[in-house]
Design brief:
The protein is of the alpha+beta class and about 375 residues long. The chain contains ten helices and 18 strands. The strands form three sheets. Strands 1, 2, 3, 4, 5, 6, 7, 10, 11, 13 and 16 form an eleven-stranded mixed beta sheet that branches. A five-stranded mixed beta sheet has the order 8-18-17-14-15, with no helix packed on it. A hairpin with a 5-residue loop joins strand 14 and strand 15. Helix 2 packs across helix 3 and helix 2 runs antiparallel to helix 5. About 50% of the residues are buried.
Length: about 375
């Protein structure tokens, strides 16, 4: 249970959401003890909007130590309490190809037309043409534009490289409001996808003014074969039932946790299959090509607002090329895989893989939340 929490949880300001019979409630975790904040704020979004950036969380009503909540995962017979994704009314956004290695893998998917069997050959060809240049280039710089011209001349240019080294980041909507699942929940892959993988990421939580208020962990489940067929299928590849996981908690920025902790974070990934398969990977945020605050700034501005705030996936450098099974076909999920995304300052996000149609259907939307809040007297009906 304690691996849910950051290693320095005694110094962390943590916010989350808990499922109850009366509907979801915002909670805080202070030194291993859980507090109900529903008397102070109806939603996590409202809580962050009302709190000044340097403010203190309200104390709330004690629910006891976190172990007392019996937060078993869904596949072990979930107990009476269940952790939800720690956001509610926030829009869920994501930034793509922000690491050089993921940029190359998107190019490979595109060239292979979503066929994992042809990916190894294209990977070798692309890496030979590009070499290590892309990783050291600042997006939008004169050096980046020179590299772009070289790649066009060599026939290796791609729309993915445009957002990797060009001035504009790729920012897209990952999931609808309230559709994300939390730690201990199933994550889904489409049954018609045969080449897919997790994408472990740090996720920035911002308020309606675009202030970065905290961070959590995310798994931006990705269907490589579908997106590889066409970038216009991004929605089908990214936005499916249970395909977005967030959690376990939002850690608010304060004197003990700053944006520099995000810039220097190392995010680990562990995949364990029911076939005794095991894969470990790491993403070092120092290798990101765009600063997190630049990505936040490209998400919100005069042309786009988010009145309830937003969650922004920062991207991943994890794109496994190792074979799982038939040589040359790379990694893909199998049903029953357990996926753990972790970093010391944010804790561990744990999910298990199923087909999207077998995951609990998404039925709790904004109207359901409003009805529950009205019944509790938290809002006017």
């Amino acid at each position: 249970m304690r691996d849910l929490l950051p290693e320095d949880s005694q110094d962390a300001t943590l916010v989350g959401r808990l499922a109850t019979e009366q509907g979801p409630i915002p909670i805080s975790v202070v030194d291993g003890h859980v507090f109900d904040l529903s008397g102070e704020a109806a939603t996590v979004s409202g809580l962050l909007e009302a709190m000044p950036p340097s403010g203190k969380l309200p104390i709330g009503r004690s629910l006891g130590p976190i172990e007392a909540l019996d937060l078993r995962p869904a596949w072990d017979g979930a107990g009476p309490g269940r952790l939800l994704a720690p956001i509610d009314l926030h829009c869920v956004k994501a930034s793509g190809v922000t690491f050089a290695v993921s940029a190359l893998e998107r190019v490979i998917e595109e060239r292979a037309r979503g066929d994992s069997a042809g990916a190894a050959q294209f990977r070798a060809e692309i890496q030979e043409k590009i070499g290590g240049d892309i990783q050291s280039v600042r997006p939008g710089s004169p050096e980046a534009m020179n590299l772009k011209e070289m790649l066009i001349a060599s026939g290796a240019w791609s729309q993915y490289l445009e957002v990797a080294i060009g001035p504009d980041a790729e920012i897209f909507t990952k999931a609808p409001v309230l559709s994300a699942v939390g730690s201990g929940a199933w994550v889904g892959i489409r049954s018609d996808s045969h080449w897919n993988n997790p994408e472990p990421e740090v996720v920035i939580i911002a308020d309606s003014a675009g202030n970065a208020r905290g961070a959590t962990l995310g798994n931006d489940v990705n269907l490589r074969d579908i997106e590889g067929r066409s970038a216009l299928l991004l929605g089908k590849a990214k936005d499916n039932n249970a395909s977005c996981a967030l959690g376990p908690f939002i850690r608010l920025f304060d004197d003990n946790f700053t944006m520099d902790d995000i810039r220097n974070a190392e995010v680990s990934l562990l995949i364990e299959g029911e076939d005794n398969y095991r894969l470990e990977g790491r993403s070092n945020m120092r290798l990101i090509s765009r600063d997190p605050l630049d990505l936040v700034g490209q998400t919100i501005g005069k042309s786009h607002q988010y009145p309830d705030g937003f969650a922004l996936f920062l991207g991943t450098m994890f794109a496994p090329g190792d074979d799982r099974g038939e040589p040359g076909r790379g990694f893909t999920h199998k049903i029953g895989d357990t996926v753990k995304v972790a970093t010391p300052k944010l804790g561990t996000l744990t999910n298990k893989v199923c087909h999207c149609e077998d995951a609990p259907p998404w039925t709790y939307g904004i109207s359901s939340l409003m009805r529950d809040l009205a019944r509790r007297g938290a809002v006017q009906a």
